[in-house]
Amino acid sequence: MSATARKTSWPFTVRPLTPRLGAEISGVDFTKPMEGALFDAIHDAFLTYQVLLFGVQDLDPGDQVAFARNFGDVQVHVMNQYHAVAHPELYRLSNLDEQGNPNGRHPDKGTLAWHTDGSWMRNTGQATIIYSEVAPEEGGQTHFCDMYGAYDRLSPAWKSRLEGLRAVHNLDFSRTRRHGVDLMTDDQKRAVPPVDHPVVRTHPETGRKAVFLGDHAECIQGMDYDAGRALIEEVNAMIVHPDLTYEHRWTPGELIVWDNRCLLHRATEYDAATQRRVIRRCTVLGEVPR
């Protein structure tokens, strides 16, 4: 069935967000049980557009986790200090104090660099689902970049150079260099040792190739450390293109779902001393990249 034919049969309205990726989905009520046919259509749109934006709604934590489970097993993040109360599957990022005022501390500066969720695990992240509880008036956006398109734009020489290379992804590396405080404990480090993945992966459902790097990638397996670091930095800078990017400014109550297997994403800065931002995130476990 063609993509056009599939779209006409979807039980919701679709509005593309950019010419290359992203769609706003209207007509889905997350307070009702997610029937199989409806989720199948959502999953089809997910593979087609890579990023799905659902309009403002009152979504409680339990319903968010229940929706995520339609995609597969939901990660319980190793950084347990971020777990939401009663729902360890949810990773809650907030800069508010007990009185609900900005505390001046960014909860996770690692999110400000381009990355893909869970690349530091053997079975990497599949879908990530973010719900916005509180959104800042300025900053605190989330940007997404298409890694299918990034791969397609590589020159033949670069494709040949990257084919067969494996990068070592390490949460402790990215956490330490980007956040600098509230570092991983020894137990957390032991729970998620560094893992290696192909720099160019094939999406297990679409069959398309995508660049698979981002900020969790520390070095290249079998290459001198400094040379590998330089290569990763060069490629990470090369693969982000403005016209392959969707930049989302949050409204409280919005839900976004995206495919980590073919995207990079990042948050943007905001003034943590004057602006309020609270999001809750869960990531569905995927496959071992091939």
Would you give an account of this structure?
This protein is of the alpha+beta class. The chain has one domain (about 5-285): Clavaminate synthase-like (Double-stranded beta-helix, 4-Layer Sandwich), CATH 3.60.130.10. It is about 25% helix and about 25% strand. It has helices at about 5-10, 35-50, 60-70, 145-155, 155-160, 170-180, 185-190, 225-240, and strands spanning about 15, 25, 50-55, 85, 85-95, 125-135, 140-145, 165-170, 195-200, 200, 210, 215-220, 245-250, 255-260, 265, 280-285. Strands 1-2-3-14-6-16-5-4 form an eight-stranded mixed β-sheet, with helices on one face. It has a three-stranded antiparallel β-sheet with strand order 13-7-15. It has a three-stranded antiparallel β-sheet with strand order 9-8-12. α1 (about 5-10) runs antiparallel to α2. The protein is globular. The two termini are about 25 Å apart. Residues about 1-5 have low confidence and may be disordered.
SSE diagram, text form:
Blueprint: H1 3-9, E1 13-16, E2 23-26, H2 36-49, E3 51-54, H3 61-68, E4 83-84, E5 87-94, E6 125-134, E7 142-146, H4 147-153, H5 156-162, E8 166-169, H6 171-178, H7 186-191, E9 195-198, E10 200-202, E11 209-211, E12 217-220, H8 225-238, E13 245-248, E14 255-259, E15 263-267, E16 278-285
Parallel strand pairs: 2-3
Antiparallel strand pairs: 1-2, 3-14, 4-5, 5-16, 6-14, 6-16, 7-13, 7-15, 8-9, 8-12, 10-11
Helix pairs in contact: 1-2
